[in-house]
Amino acid sequence: MGHPFPIREIARQAGLSEATVDRVLNGRGGVRESTAREVHRAIADLDRQRTQVRLVGRTFMVDIVMQSPERFSTAVRAALEAELPSLHPAVVRSRFHFRETGPAGELVAVLDRIGRRGSQGVLLKAPDVPEVTAAVGRLAAAGVPVVTLVTDLPASARIGHVGSDNRAAGATAAHLVGQWLGDRPGNVLTSLSSGSFRNEEEREMGFRATMRVRHPGRSLVEIAEGQGLDATQYDLVRAALERDPEIRAVYSIGGGNIATLRAFEDAGRECAVFVAHDLDHDNTRLLREHRLSAVLHHDLRHDLREACHLVMRAHGALPPAGPTLPSAVQVVTPYNMPPPTAAG
């Protein structure tokens, strides 16, 4: 395939040997299909970042490691690459390691591989489990600073966290759901992708505490472990609707909203209020179609910019600064949606 990048640069981007990259590019065989995909993905990443590499300054190679549905990891990738030119005079190059689900051991293996290969920093969205915390400690010991993104690992050796105030977001969702349901009867379905993600746990705590004070008569029905994926979310929602005929509203903490709505439709049930998180491509479309009541959104570009600044400070490239403040939570309805370039 035609491209302007030297084999050495592609190998560095992909984290592979030059010999492996050469075999893939020249079709000589003996390479796993997954490895070939990594090479082609590295070339695509380099191509997207080509305009930024002309900036003069110090270069940082940063690894973004995320366990997240594709719709959200795509939004994070777009937000980071949109911010790269603003980091001038530094040049930030990025390698992406995305997976939707899987055992924690696979995520740990990725982090340990980065530690052996070397990196100027890791931006990490991962479940808060002991083995991941231990892997962050090994990265720190190897001199690789880690910044947690969206969901925190507070007991780890990470150098900082960027994201929104999740308890405030959950409380905001409770306020909206309670106001919009008004005097109508009905219970509220709360949906988490996994109990292992601290941000989702904090959102649920903020929501539950506020509902308990402001709307004590409403029951909350919780489902979890759908991983935010439509394929698994549908069955969880459908079962909850069959168990509880009074569910009338949804607070979607972890996603899978297309499947949730389909479960309501297939059950012949109305979802009177539906509050979700993040303006990813699914939620943007659902909001435009008025199938969601509101989306709680925070500025991913701001978060990624702050994360890169934390990495630069860890290497002494920027002066020290005060603590990183949480991103503001925005309530987005079909009538105040940001333009497409800002919604990512």
UniProtKB/TrEMBL annotation:
Q: Does the keyword Iron apply?
A: no
InterPro entries in UniProt: HTH_LacI (IPR000843), Lambda_DNA-bd_dom_sf (IPR010982), Peripla_BP_I (IPR028082), SBP_2_dom (IPR025997)
Molecular functions (GO terms): DNA binding
Tell me which positions the record assigns to the signal sequence: none
**SUPFAM superfamilies associated with the record:** lambda repressor-like DNA-binding domains, Periplasmic binding protein-like I
SMART domains per UniProt? HTH_LACI
The record ties this protein, via Gene3D superfamilies, to: 3.40.50.2300, lambda repressor-like DNA-binding domains
PANTHER family reported in the protein's UniProt record: LACI-RELATED TRANSCRIPTIONAL REPRESSOR, TRANSCRIPTIONAL REGULATORY PROTEIN
Put simply, this protein is called LacI family DNA-binding transcriptional regulator
Which organism encodes this protein? Streptomyces heliomycini
